Amino acid sequence: MARRTSRSDARPAKASVTRGKRAPKRSARAQRSTVLLRWCVLATAGFVGFLYYQPLSSYLETRATLNERTAEVQLLRQERSRLQARLEDSATVAALSREARRMSLVRPGERLFIVKGVPEWRRAHARLSSAR
User: Fold this and answer.
1) Cα 93 vs. chain centroid, distance in angstroms?
2) Residue 96 contacts by C-beta under 8 Å, 6 or more apart in sequence?
3) Angle 93-102/28-90 helices, nearest 10 degrees?
4) b vs e for 19-54, b when ≥16 Cβ sit within 10 Å of the residue's Cβ?
């Protein structure tokens, strides 16, 4: 009689080859669905980031403009204070008199004297005082 071999005799059992518990084998479909799920989550996060980009950039630009305008307003307030002080000072009689003198105006009854050669006189006077 011919010797019959059963399949179990021809190949050793997988349990005996691995010698321990077998890890459950994941199907290719389960692996694909996990990868697809990860890509969907990533795409959703990217889309949400895209939707937030325009309002966020608009907010940052507006905030920068506001800071610039605030600094400009501060400078204008300082200039306004300076000009108001100058206006209050110019309303006095002494300031009016100073401005009139700068424009070479004289009061009624005063004599106008025009002095020429002041810088040369100062140089000569400086030489004389240094020679002493």
Assistant:
1) 49
2) 90
3) 90
4) eeeeeeeeeeeeeeeeeeeeeeeeeeeeeeeeeeee
Q: What does the alpha-carbon distance between residue 34 and residue 82 come to, in Å, rounded to a whole number?
A: 71
Per the rule left: phi > 0, alpha: psi between -120 and 50, beta: everything else, 113 is beta
Q: What is d(CA 86, CA 76) in angstroms, rounded to the nearest whole number?
A: 15
Distance CA 125, CA 131 (A): 10
Instruction: For the chain, give the percent of residues with pLDDT over 70.
Output: 77
Tokens of 34: 């996990």
- Count how many Cα atoms sit within 13 Å of the Cα of residue 45 in the half-sphere of its side chain: 6
Supply the pTM of this predicted model. Answer: 0.43
